[in-house]
From TrEMBL:
Organism encoding this protein: Coffea arabica
Localization per Swiss-Prot or TrEMBL: Membrane; Plastid, Chloroplast envelope
Solcar repeats: 89-181, 189-272, 279-363
Membrane-spanning intervals of the chain: 284-302
Bilayer disposition of the protein: Multi-pass membrane protein
The name this protein goes by in its record: Probable envelope ADP,ATP carrier protein, chloroplastic isoform X1
UniProt lineage: Eukaryota, Viridiplantae, Streptophyta, Embryophyta, Tracheophyta
Keywords per UniProt: Chloroplast, Membrane, Plastid, Repeat, Transit peptide, Transmembrane, Transmembrane helix, Transport
Pfam families to which the protein is assigned, alphabetical: Mito_carr (PF00153)
């Protein structure tokens, strides 16, 4: 078998004078040994450095280069395709999985989302002196079908799909990053830490993609608009850049607790289950439904406030104006307008996203193990060939 090689490269540093102090193996060996055993325990020996050094020296391991020599061949990848996933950067794989899952979930649930938006914004659209109570679920379904046909149920879905790709990627990446940030010195993450990580991840992704969310709402509920480009142009011309961030405050306030509760409950519920159940797909689906239900019930009123503040001609300037205004017009029920279609849309949507994310993480781990098996097999084959050659 090949032993690990340690290369020694030297370069001049003008600020330092030459030194003829010998470096003994007792000084450098522990550090070398640590590198050696961490990367290639099969070598069984440590590399010693002896001699005089007069210039600054930097050490680099050649393990990765050596490992690439044993990477699977095309035939091996065809027979064991799972190893191919390990060759894709981990972040790229997670990004693609989150984007595809989010886009698919949004497209499937788009009709329910359109119905929810009409129910939430009906009072503002008909005018302040118009009908006070909102329209119902069945009435909204009939209204869309009668006025716009089948395509009307997917109106505004394209900007939503475009939005969900970066939104999912930023949110999942940010959540993993914030979890590391809020974890303790021993690497453990408390419930408060999970909530904080989820809240920060939700606000980060919302801020980055908020203009697309406003465009999607305008395209979905305001008559006369055909394309997202036309909506954006009219908003810039008539309302200015600030219109793309109308209702950002309540959006951040609303999404922070929602993502915090959703992600935290999902993680804790799965963690509390027996290990044999944690890796099952159906467990992730059910856990996702539970976490999304709890988060939706608690945070839905803030979503209603956000939607009404995004509308053109809204009488509400702040969250403090919107809450009493909606309560005065529609009562407590007004804060939960569109809750049923939203729940029908959000629950499977969240469940699909989290389940897909969990599944991809397990596939990545399995692919890395598969790749290491192939590398080990190739290394052993070369070792056997070398041994046979020596004997001959």
């Amino acid at each position: 078998m090949k032993k690990s090689q340690v290369s020694l490269s030297c370069r001049e540093i003008p600020a330092l004078k030459s030194s003829n102090v010998p470096i003994s193996s007792s000084i450098v060996e522990p550090e070398f040994y640590l590198l050696q055993t961490n990367r290639s325990s099969h070598a069984g020996t440590s590399t010693r450095l002896r001699g005089n050094v007069s210039n600054f020296a930097s050490l680099s391991m050649e393990e990765k280069k050596e490992e690439r020599e044993f990477y699977p061949t095309s035939n091996q990848l065809l027979k064991r395709p799972l190893a191919l996933l390990a060759l894709v950067p981990k972040d790229a794989a997670l990004f693609a999985a989150g984007a595809i899952a989010g886009a698919a979930a949004k497209t499937v649930t788009a009709p329910l989302d359109r119905i929810k938006l009409l129910m939430q914004t009906h009072g503002v659209r008909v005018g302040q002196e118009g009908v006070r109570k909102g329209i119902g679920f069945i009435e909204a379904i009939t209204l869309i079908g009668r006025e716009e046909g089948i395509k009307g149920y997917w109106k505004g879905n394209l900007p939503q799909v475009i939005r969900i790709i970066p939104y999912s990627a930023v949110q999942l990446f940010a959540y993993e990053t914030y979890k590391k940030l809020f974890s303790g010195k021993d690497g453990t993450l408390s419930v408060i830490g999970r909530l904080a990580a989820g809240a920060c991840a939700g606000m980060t992704s919302t801020f980055v993609t908020y203009p697309l969310d406003v465009l999607r709402l305008r395209l979905a509920v305001e008559p006369g608009y055909k394309t997202m480009t036309r909506v954006a142009f009219n908003m810039l011309k008539e309302e200015g850049v600030a219109s793309f961030y109308s209702g950002l405050g309540p959006s951040l306030i609303g999404i922070a607790p929602y993502i915090a509760v959703n992600f935290c409950v999902f993680d804790l519920v799965k963690k509390a289950l027996p290990e044999e159940y944690q890796k099952r797909t159906e467990t992730s689906l059910i856990t996702g439904l539970i976490s999304a239900t709890v988060a939706t019930v608690l945070c839905y009123p803030l979503d209603t406030v956000r939607r009404q503040m995004q509308m053109r001609g809204t009488p509400y300037k702040t969250v403090l104006d919107a809450f009493p205004g909606i309560l005065e017009r529609d009562g407590l029920v007004g804060l939960y307008r569109g809750f049923v279609p939203n729940a029908l849309k959000t629950l499977p949507n969240s469940s699909i996203r989290l389940t897909t994310f969990d599944t991809v993480k397990r596939l990545i781990v399995a692919s890395e193990k598969e790749l290491q098996k192939i590398i080990l097999e190739n290394r052993n084959k070369e070792g056997q060939s070398s041994s046979e050659g020596t004997v001959r």
